[in-house]
Amino acid sequence: MTELNHLTAHELLDKLSKKEATAQAIQDALYTRIQKTDKKVKAYVRMDKLISSKSIKTKAEEPGRNGLNLYGLPISIKDNICTQGFITECCSKILQGFNPPYNATVINKLKEASAEIFPLKTNMDEFAFGSSTENSYFGSTHNPWNLDCVPGGSSGGSAAAVASDEAIWALGSDTGGSIRQPASFCGVVGLKPTYGRVSRFGLIAFASSLDQIGPITKDVRDAAILSQIISGFDPKDSTSINQPVPEYTKSLGLDIKGLKFGIPKEYFVDGMDAEVKIIIQEAIAKLNTLGAFSHQVSLPHTEYAVPVYYIIATAEASSNLARFDGVQYGYRAKSDNLIQMYKKTRGEGFGDEAKRRIILGTFALSHGYYDAYYLRALKVRTLIKQDFDKIFKDFDCIITPTCPTAAFKIGEKTKDPLEMYLSDIYTISVNLAGIPAISIPCGFTKNGLPVGLQIMAKAFNEEVLFRVAHVYEQNTQWHKLKPKL
Predict the structure, then answer these.
(1) Residue 175, Cβ neighbours under 10 Å: how many?
(2) Which SS3 state, helix, strand or coil, does residue 414 take?
(3) Is the preceding omega at residue 429 within 30 degrees of 0, hence cis?
(4) Looking at residue 327, what DSSP letter applies?
């Protein structure tokens, strides 16, 4: 008999609605799995015993938001999303003990849909600075498919928890690939929504013009359900777009006959792992057999994406992290001198990667360098966006690898930050352009590591992503495979 925590959210919701399972039984199964497995995976940084059946029964009787009722189904939350009453530290010493006085908008939307929010906070790179979840103050998370490998980052804890059945589903955040890259490395589904589709209120900011909250799930239907709940206009977020949210699940089950897919030649170059290249080509061929048409296209400014991203993102990070000084909340170093207290707090509170990005960003914004670096990066960002706009005039989607390689070994790239930054080369452009993209499992290397297929669409066209991803998923078995833990 399949353990309840191994099932997808929509399978569990079906059981709950038919009274074939109870929320208490689901949570007990989940808690047992975490107790057994997380000592190896280390997906969580904070976890208490779950809740009582009395609380769950109340949840099950409440009406859900927009007709959706999650019946007290638990969801795991990345440690940079504010949860009132539960500590949120961004896996950084400098936010030690921070207990937010409010919920992020996405948390309130989940509560309105009768989800249960527990202190199940997942591990991440400090302030989302990383591609491996090795930069956490709490130590590294391990990939469930190979415990010697990274789970990706920065949402590595959320992806590893879902992949190892320590979570039913989870929320992550994506600034340059931080949902899609760990989803690829862990063999799960990860969606980066259109910029402005999901409120950023209550997300502790890394780079405000790039950050987006999104779902990490076991299959595409779960991603569609969770996206439906968390999406929508929020007046508390000045970057939120007042656009109607479609009923995403209606896109599931539609065929892809006649859809046109662009395959950018710049994403199939030297440096890409040969096994990954073959797996992606086979996935594209599979989509073609299902009725789609694929043609080679060009995104000519792709080569500038990484340098542009690491100027804009670090500049915004430098500005956003200036507020963490030991005065109002979090860690404070002892000192009799105010200026020394600032210096010691930031010196002791931030990890190496956070310091690196603050310094890079401050330099890019400094007098004499602003025009040469930051302003020029913004102009090239516009060119990158225009590349995508041009393709989407003629094509429904763009298909690429999510990552140039499968998961790498823990410690393999920590001594070379540039090599680590390049692991996001296929995901960064999406954030710069503000468009949505999804990563779905599409195969495994000979060493048994998952590979992800990335599907991109024009802004606010998440429906086509779910449509294409679901058709591919239903005609393959990759999403059904589980790591042996």
Answers:
(1) 29
(2) coil
(3) no
(4) S
Scan for tokens 């638990």, then name that residue.
Answer: 74
Terminal-to-terminal C-alpha distance of the chain: 17
Q: Which residues are catalytic?
A: 78, 154, 178
- The CATH H-level superfamily of 4-256+437-480 is Amidase signature (AS) domain (3.90.1300.10)
Write the CB contacts of 371 (distance below 8 Å, at least 6 apart in sequence): none
Q: How far apart are CA 285 and CA 478, in angstroms?
A: 16
For residue 298, give Cα distances in angstroms to 180, 386, 425, 434: 22, 12, 16, 18
In angstroms, the CA 158 to CA 212 distance is: 15
Rounded Cα distance, 163 and 76, in Å: 12
DSSP, collapsed to helix, strand or coil, labels residue 375 as helix
**Nearest Cα to Cα of residue 193 among 483, 2, 466, 388:** 466
DSSP-assigned letter for residue 238: T
Query: Quick one: pLDDT at residue 53?
Result: 42
User: Taking a C-beta distance cutoff of 8 angstroms, is the pair 446, 273 a contact?
Assistant: no
pLDDT at 52: 41
DSSP state of 328: S
pTM: 0.96
* 230, 115 contact by CB (below 8 A): no
Sheet containing 397-401: order of strands: 44-46, 116-122, 74-78, 170-174, 212-217, 189-192, 437-444, 450-456, 397-401, 260-264, 293-297
* Consecutive 10-residue averages of pLDDT for the chain (485 residues): 91 95 92 95 81 48 64 95 95 96 97 88 97 96 98 98 98 98 98 98 97 98 98 98 96 96 93 94 98 97 96 97 93 94 96 96 92 95 98 98 96 85 91 98 98 98 98 97 94
